[in-house]
Amino acid sequence: MADIIKLLPDHVANQIAAGEVVQRPASVVKELLENAIDAGATNIKLIVKDGGKALIQVVDNGIGMSETDARLSFERHATSKISCAEDLFNLNTKGFRGEALASIAAIAHVDVQTKPENAELGSFLKIEGSKITAQDVAATPKGTSIAVKNLFFNIPARRNFLKSNQVELRHITDEFQRVALVHFDVAFQFYNNGSELFNLPKENFRQRIVHVFGAKMNERLVPVEEETEVVKVSGFICKPEFARKSRGEQFFFANGRFIKSPYLHHAIGAAFEGLIKSEMQPGYFLFLNVDPKAIDINIHPTKTEVKFDDENTLYAILRSTIKHSLGQFNVVPSLDFEHDNNLLTPYSYQGKEAVVPKVTVDARFNPFESKESSTVRTSSFKKKSIEGWENLYTDLDDKDNSFSSVQFESQIEVPDIFEGQEEDIETNQIAFQLRRKFIVTTIKSGMLVINQNRAHQRVLYEKFLANNEVKQGVSQQLLFPLTLEFTGPEIQQLKQFHEHLSVLGFIMNFGKKQKVTVSGIPTIMTETSIGTVFAELLINNESEVTDEEVLSSEVLIAKILCRTLALKSGQPLDTTSQIALVNDLFGCEESKLDPFNRIIYTTIETDLIEKKFI
Ligand code: ADP
Ligand code: MG
Description:
By secondary structure, the protein is of the alpha+beta class. The chain contains 18 helices and 22 strands. Helix content is 31%, strand content 21%. It has helices at residues 10-21, 25-38, 67-72, 100-106, 156-161, 165-182, 205-213, 262-271, 311-328, 389-394, 403-413, 452-470, 488-496, 498-503, 530-540, 554-565, 575-586, 606-611; strands at residues 43-49, 55-60, 109-115, 122-128, 131-138, 143-149, 187-192, 195-200, 221-227, 232-238, 250-254, 257-259, 284-289, 295-296, 307-308, 431-434, 438-443, 446-451, 475-485, 507-510, 515-522, 601-605. An eight-stranded mixed β-sheet has the order 5-4-3-6-2-1-7-8. It starts with 9 loop residues before the first helix and ends with a helix.
C-alpha cells in the first residue's frame, strides 16, 4: 500500500487553528487588545464597524515591530513572549502561544502598520488568507495598528453563523470591558461605526469601574483588601442591596487575566449568604494575585478557565475576606430588599388622581337639637352595586348568576379562621393574602388563588394597550424633566429603541455627554419609577445572559415595562387593594395569562376540599 499521510500545508493548518482561536469578532478584539497591552502601550484605540464583521482595528503606542518581526508575527508559533517550556510557568504576558495573528490572518484581510520607537520609518503589510499581498515602508507613529477586515471571508459557513451586528457588538463590548478593567493605567478609546462608546483616561481601579459601568456604581462599591501567603485579594464587591437577578458585573482577574471560575464564584455567594436572596447575584471586581507557578492558565484555548494549585484554600480565604469587608463597611444591617417608594401606595389608589378633600357642612346639624332628628343620612348611602367579577370569570352567558348569590355564598362560608381578615363591606367579597404572594378569594365552585404579581402585570398591560389605541404615544408631561446619565453602550442601546419608546409615550432628548432628558412618560408610570424602568430595559438588553436579539418591538418593551411596574411578590396588600386588583383582573380581556403567557390564577374546587374530609 502506498503512503497516504501528508503534512497539511500551512494555510490549511492555520485555518484549522483559527477555528479554535477565533470564534467570533470578539475573539479577534481580545487577541489584538492583549497584544497591544503586551507591547507596553499606554494608549489603545479600538475601532469597530458592523459588529466587527466589516472592520476591527486596534491602534496602540507600544513598542512596535521591526519589518522582519512584522512578517514573522503572522507565522504560526511565532512569539516573542516565551522561548522555552520553563517560561510557561513564569508568564507575565497575556499571549504566549504565537497563534493569534497567524489564525486571524488565515481567515481575514489584515493590514498592519508598525514602527519601533527609534526607527525612522515603519512598515506596512497586507495579508489575505495567510498570504502577504503587499509590503511597503510607511511613515507612521511609534506603535502598531492592525486592521482586520471581512472576517471569515473564506469560510462562508462561519460568517453566516455570526449573529446580528448588535449581538456581536455586545460580545465585543464584553471583551473590551474585561481588558479595560484590569488595565486601568492604560487609556482606551472605543468607537463603533464612527461613534464613541468609551473614552477612558488613565485612572485608578475604582474610577475605571465607574467610567465603564456608570456613575451609579460609585456608591455601590465596597473595597476588599487581603494579603496572605497564598494569594493577594484586592478590588471591590457591590453592596448586597444592589445584587441582581442576571449575571453581569462579576469579574475575577487572576494575575491580571480575566477568568471564569464557578468554584470561586460560589465562594463569594457563600460570603453573601443570608444577605441576598438565593436567586440574586452579587457584583464583584476582584484581583487575585498568586505565584505564577501556582496557576495553570493553559487548560483552555480561549484562556478564561484556569487551574489553581490550591483551590480549596483560595475558596476559604476569598469567603472570609469578603465577609470581613461586608462587616467592616457596615453594609449588613441596612438591608431592605423590597423597598420601592412606588409600591408604598396601596394598590387601590395606584394610578388614580388624588382628589382634593372638600369640607362639607351639614346645614341641618344643630348640637342643641335632640338626637333623633340628626341621624338621617346613613340609609341614603346605598351600597354601590359594583360589577361582579365572578360573572366574568364563570360564565358570561349566565345572566342569572348575579352578584347577590355570591354575596350570600361568601357570607355563609366564612368560618372563624377568617377572623382578622376583615370583610370588605362594600362588596362583601372575601380576600386574603397568602405568603404575600397570592390573593385567595372564594368563588361559587370553591377557591381562587391568584398570583398578585402576574395579575397586576396583566392589568397594567391592558391599561397600557387601551391607552395606546386611543392615541399613539399618549404621555404625561413631567413638570420637571429628569436628566439621566448613562454609559456609552447604554446610550447606543437607548437610541436603538428610541422610536419604540416614543410610540409608548416616552419623550426623550439625547443631550451631550451621555445624558438623556426625559420630559414625558407613559401614563401608567409614575415619575419615581423612571430610573428602575430604564435600568430594567437596559438589563434586558445586556450581554452575557443570552445571545437573544435585542429588544425589537414596542410590544416586548411594553411587557417589560409592565413587569417592572407591577406589584411584586412580597408586597403586603390590604383587603381593599386585594379586591380592587381581583376586580381589575377580571375586567381584563384576557385574565388567565400574564403578558408573558404564564398562568395568573388557579382554582381549588370545593369538591376537592370535601374529599379531604371523608
Ligand atoms: P502571542 O501574543 O501569543 O505571542 P500573537 O500571534 O498574538 O502571539 O503575536 C505574535 C507576536 O507578534 C507577538 O509575540 C509579538 O512579538 C508580536 N506582536 C503582535 N502584536 C503586536 C503589537 N501590537 N505590538 C508589538 N508587537 C506585536
Ligand atoms: Mg497575542
